[in-house]
Amino acid sequence: MDLKQVCPEKLLTAQESVKKIKNGSRVFIGTGCGEPQELIKAMVEDLSIQDIIIYQMLSHSLSDYVDDESFLSRFSIKLFFISAMMRQSAFEGKIDYIPVYLSQIPEIFSNREIGLDVALVQVSPPDHHGYCSLGISVDITLSGMKNANIVIAQVNPQMPRTWGDSIVHIDEIDYLVEFEQPVLESLPLTKNKKVVERIGHYVNTLVDDGATLQIGFGHLPDAVVPYLADKKDLGIHTQVITNGLLPLFKNKAITNKKKNYLPDRTIASLCMGSQELYDFVHNNPSFYFRSSEFVNDPNIIARNDNFISISSALEVDLTGQICTDSKGYLFYSGIGDQVDFIRGSAMSKGGFSIVIIPSTAQDDEVSRIVPHLSEGAGVATTRGDIDIIVTEYGVAEMRRKSIYQRVMELARIAHPKFRKNLIEEAKKRHYIFPDQLPPTTQDLLFLDRYLYSLKLENGKTVDFRPLLPSDEFESRHFYYSLQDDSIYYRFFNKRKVFSRDMLQQQWAEVDYRRNMTIIGLMQIGKRKQIVAIGSYAEAGKYSAEVAFLVKEKLHGLGIGTYLLGILETIATENNYKQFIATVLAENRKMINVFKNKYPHAKFLRSGSGEVEVEMPFIPHKD
């Protein structure tokens, strides 16, 4: 469409257009990489424009001016999220930050809590019907435009044309400035590759094929996304599309086919990345850009079954409180979309949230898992909202856990050199018992080799993994759920009490090499419960004593045999050549399991009614 013929009265130069901005105006600027660079430049360079309040979500171009005193005397900047480029200015008090949930910002504009006089936006050229596209910046830009008294748009042929709420007609725009220039790019930064790799590994274990994902703001969520490349039929419902997702789109890991809500489409509000990414979303009907009050509405998010929110944090305390927007008193980023998506994922059928955070900062000198948030740090996400926290040292399950359990979960995934101190600080605050033992200082990444799953004849699945300190309470429930005979056969006495000391000692003695305990978990109701425990402990240079227990209702389903196989695999890796066991002669079920698993086993009966069993491992042929 030739604008000179259709609406010549609307066509202005950038310099002419900003003359429409009156002194004292409240000016909205489009978000992030979609911001109209030429209009911003013209507004700033027009020295007659005075006393302007600027509202923006993510700011880029203004960072070129905030160190200029004459600029600051003419413009007040209010941001809903502090970008990396504006961070130092926020620290120095040169800009203002508005903490608000992203889903609520459009309503703030529409109900005039924040009145807007002028909106500066960027659009693609109109089609032959007169429709332009807001392209990669729809989020709060659409609302800012619709609720401003004057709309000035930079018409840029390089702005990608996107589908969805991004479509606006030239009749909705008061003044048009034709100016072509490259769209801003936001290229990913790789900081600590080893940390990213390990966090990516753990996130991969939590995400199932067919899940629908949200990827939060920040370099870390973007950096871990490529580690999901082996997944199938992932869906996307997220605030921002970044370069980290591009390989998953291209290799068909993301198909959106399993989404039950708005299937076959990637739902987003923003796109921030490279020109390659912009070319990919340009005129691509599989992308559907909607405004933030839709994309970030927890009730909309919850319509997606199996929804997983992946976001990051600056700091987490031992109770699960999350800080995302400040480092102490210094405002660093923003509340953004985290709370919206965490709450939406909690309401999703099969959904949950993951908060990822490196265990340390400042070259491993400072722990990001802390006894209490730093003075001045804000609680962006409450302890009641948290599901899972991941560092490079593991996965902490927080949902509906007690403060005691949270402390043990988080201490376990903290950097090893801070674990003991975290336990001591938790004792001072009476979060845990005074005699609580600290978790091991080992790096337990190798334990991920010991994750197993067994599908039973009844259709149920039992997942097996090593025992962890945070399993203390669940193992207690397991022992108390057993019948008296099972307890007697395992402990050779009619034990009635399973004390904290005993259970603490059980996990404290596990070094995962000479002493190993594997638990089997089954989904019962809304949580996974322990249904089997198997252990071995060093008895000699090449032998280890083995024992196991399986919930009575699950006897005869092969769980004990499978558990023995896991323990043998691990024992063999640690140079043991046989298991030994002491069994009561009347415990026929246990003896039969040993016989079936180890045909060459030796059974020696003692005079006290016990049977000594020797079970040499049969070397596996490569």
Describe the structure.
By secondary structure, the protein is α/β, with parallel strands linked by helices. It has three domains: 3-178, 3-Layer(aba) Sandwich (Glutaconate Coenzyme A-transferase), CATH 3.40.1080.10; 193-428, Acetyl-CoA hydrolase/transferase C-terminal domain (Glutaconate Coenzyme A-transferase), CATH 3.40.1080; 450-616, Aminopeptidase, CATH 3.40.630.30. The chain is elongated, with a radius of gyration of 30 Å.
Short overview:
This protein is 27% helix and 24% strand. The protein is of the alpha/beta class.
Main sheet attributes: strand count, strand direction, barrel closure: 8 strands, mixed
- CATH domain class name of the largest domain: Alpha Beta
Report the CATH architecture of the largest domain. Answer: 3-Layer(aba) Sandwich
Q: How are the strands ordered across the major sheet? A: 27-28-29-30-31-32-34-33
Q: What radius of gyration results from the CA coordinates? A: 30 Å
> Average pLDDT value?
92
Overall shape: it is: elongated
CATH 4th-level superfamily of the largest domain: Acetyl-CoA hydrolase/transferase C-terminal domain
- Report the β-strand fraction as a percent range: 15-25%
Distance between the termini: 70 Å
Helix content: 25-40%
CATH topology of the largest domain: Glutaconate Coenzyme A-transferase
Q: In total, how many beta strands?
A: 34
- Sequence stretches where pLDDT stays below 50 over 5 or more residues: none
- The total domain count is 3
